[in-house]
Design brief:
It is a single chain. The chain is an alpha+beta fold. The protein has two domains: about 70 residues, no CATH class; about 100 residues, no CATH class. The chain contains five helices and six strands. It is elongated. The model has no long low-confidence stretch (mean pLDDT about 90). The structure holds zinc ion. The site of zinc ion (ZN) has 7 residues, from helix 4.
Length: about 170
Amino acid sequence: MIRGLRGCPLVEIIEGMLYGIINYYQKRHAAAVLHSTTVQTPYCNKMYIWMDKAVAKASQHIVIAMGTHDNRFEITVRAKGGVGRETTLVTHEVNLGRQFDGRAECTCNKPMLLHVPCSHVLASLAQVGVSSGGYISTFYLKENMVQTWTWEFFWIHGSWRLLCVQ
Ligand SMILES: [Zn+2]
């Protein structure tokens, strides 16, 4: 953000950073609107790509239902070994709780850290025929992504404000 501003006086550095941030907002907004109007998906571009990859991975997993009360699953991930490399099987444990209410735990920790279903959770959901929609944070919906970058910068009473204009 401050590239090319290093030798400037402080006021110019701050101004330069502000214009950099505004430019960043304009680019993110344009990209979000373009994605939202051209790609047939309920999700933002990052989630669209994530789901594409995770669904493809999930179809390769071996799923065994393990739970009696909870919907627990053991997922065996196809070995990544190549020529001359040792092939080891990796297993993950998924717990979808008793109701399919959007709560998912997995030993890979991605659902907890990123609020998105990992390929292991998707494989478990596919096994029981439950849609993955409720397992993705509404943060990743494309209309929410557009909303995030729709704010406008205004100079009001001697300071810059970021205001939502919708
Ligand atoms: Zn996982």
